[in-house]
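User: Quick sanity check before I run a bigger batch. Here is a single chain. Can you write out its predicted 3D structure?
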Amino acid sequence: MTVPERSAEGVLAAQVQMGGAGDRTVRRPRRNTRNVNGILLLDKAPGVTSNRALQDARGCLEARKAGHTGSLDPLASGLLPLCFGEATKLAQFLLDADKTYWTVLRLGQETSTYDAQGEVLDSRPVTVGRAQIEKALARFTGRIEQIPPVYSAIKQGGQPLYRLARAGIAVSPPSRQVDIHAIRLLGWQDERLEIEVRCSKGTYVRSLAHDIGQVLGCGAHVLELRRLALGEFRVENAVTLERLRALPGPDERAALLLPGDRAVDRLPAVRLTVNAAYYLCQGQAVFAAPGQVPGIARLYANDDRFLGLGEILDDGRVVPRRLVSSPERPENTKESG
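Assistant: Done. Predicted structure follows.
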């Protein structure tokens, strides 16, 4: 009997039904959730997916709405900022931020996933010296073309590449430009190469490790990976899930949250009058104090409440772009300036 060929979508649909590579657990709606607003700097443990860490933290806070700011590989540990409530509206600014990673490369081996969780595809002797390593690292500093790993969350035809790869479907991720601001050699002994990488959004350290191995001629993959920084946030200020769970209750845990406007604190701040804040939150353009520089800015009410983001136009008007709260209507509203 001839078995009919199946499309990628058909294979994945079958695996979801059977609990295979595309399995998605159906969870019951959360009960007793509440509005929680702010940013939690989480120190994710290795071996845990970013989504699992997010859901665990969300449960600890009993939060109604949550999202992370760019996933870490399951193998990786380190800084994973989580946004709750109104702060989720500003998550894109953290997604766009530069990142810093500490990583250990295992020289002499290539794997299917470009890290230690994949199947070893090739093994070669390591005969390189320090000068060759430093030359290879310098080659990848600056703006480079990078091909993401096949096992990644990038989507093709609406499906993440890792699902297609696990289903045995051949995929070819397109290359893209990324910025490697700096690579610092921290240590090297035998097959173990330790480096620190500061890079732009969209950079895959696994691909960087693979490409370095190709240039060295011995192959390489990521053995350990830890995110040290994202934008202005540092892992030293993050908390683990264990510490979060150890606190007495959701109120004590919520006390660890940073204000949502910390995600955009590199933008200039503009304070509005009571009337201007009210009308802005109704979607109207208003006038700010003279002398503001045109561009995107953080907006605050006169009592220092963060309102969200607006754009200052050349004529001095402020147009709402991404608002997070609305002040009450003032008792004596006469104008929108």
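Residues 50-61 form the longest helix (12 residues).

User: Great, the batch can go ahead then.
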